[in-house]
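Justification of resources, computational component.

The compute hours requested in this renewal are based largely on the per-chain cost of generating structure records like the one below. Each record pairs the submitted sequence with a full structure-token output. That output is archived, and it is also reused by downstream analysis tasks.
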Amino acid sequence: MEKQVDTANYKVAFREKVAFGVGDLAVNFVWASIGMFIVYFYTDVVGISAGIVGTLMLISRIWDGISDIIMGNLIDKTNTKYGKARPWILWLSVPFGLSTILLFAVPPNIGNVGTILYVFVTYNIMVIAFTGVVIPYGTLNTLITRDINERSKLNLYRMFFANIGGLIVGYYTLPLVQVFGGTQSGWVATYAVYSIIGVCLFLATFKYTKERVGAVSKNTKKKVPLSISLRMLIKNKYWIIVCLFCIVNTIGGTSMMTSMVYFTKYIFGDPNLVGYLSMSYIIFTIIGIFFVGKLVEKVGKRNVAIIGSVIYSIGAIIILMGETDFIFVVLGTIFRGIGNSTMCAVFWAFLPDTIEYGEYKTGVRNEGITYSAGSFGQKFGSGVAAALVGWILSYFNYDATMTMISNDTILAVEILFLYLPLATYILQIILMYFYKLDKFYPKMMKELIMRNEDISR
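The structure output for this chain reads:
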């Protein structure tokens, strides 16, 4: 008989933390690309209208969010010798890599309608494969341990490697495209390299992590119908706050990262400067991550999120003070990176806590559906942001072939890179004012464990 593990106090080994973390390095070879380059690739390389790209992104992201719910339900019903989340990482990592390459392999000479159809179909194939690995991967955090501090540490490892992925994509993508020829085929070759590395990293995550957390009470061991699971989510007020936080944060972050290449191209005349800006942002995000963990233990995730939102807003204001001076822009971007490091510390650590609260409140514990519904918030937010980028550029008559830079184009880029992200971070502060779970969590967990022990007797 396998030895019982005290999951409420389980301390995760360093190797397993790293193995878990590199999964998000794999994720961000695609996620950071979509956030930073996919709209630019479709508008300036493939030549699709910005408005059409924005609409395609929004429609696809809505489907992406629905597929998250479906995938979460599948995880909750999965039961194999490898667990309920890890098997999906094994099964779908290769399809995920292949679908990433297809995004950039747009065939030439198939006409405007054919190009749009190809983009729509391949983007949604990627969405399905992406969902198939990222929802199980995220759920894995809740299945390794129930210790709140260990989960926060797992999340820090995850965000550390996620930002390494963003750094690689942001700094090396355009130079790699040039190395491979500088044309569309260069994009395909670059993402073939990213995909091969990503698949290997996912397989490492599968091999060196272990699921230990299972349902304890009789109620939580039952397979709960999807309709009931969704009704239970609505009763989980902290999940609602976190989901809204995810939507708002992702709209701001995606808008900033997607418009960064446009900002460097049209404000400073050199799109390759995006590498320096993204490096300034991500390096200081990574540095901040090393210090945020202790801050979370002292003041809690909610207060850390508020502090980070304030720091990020200061960064946006610095850029507004001197947006045509690259030094000012880099300085403001550094502040944004420091503020973002706090988001990295708490963003995905909120959801496991809401899973515990959901079980405490309703007696139903469904990790997959709770996590996937939270992921829906992120996916929906990124879809809204990508759509806004396309629509705002289109509204201001953006034309990738123009030789003269219009004032309208400058204003559109300013809205996307500065004003919209600033507004979302102010909204985050308001949302976090209503999040009170940090203080209640220790008392809740003691009561929940005692309740489950009584039921199990």
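The chain is about 80% helix and 0% strand. The domain at 17-209+223-449 is CATH 1.20.1250.20 (Growth Hormone; Chain: A;).
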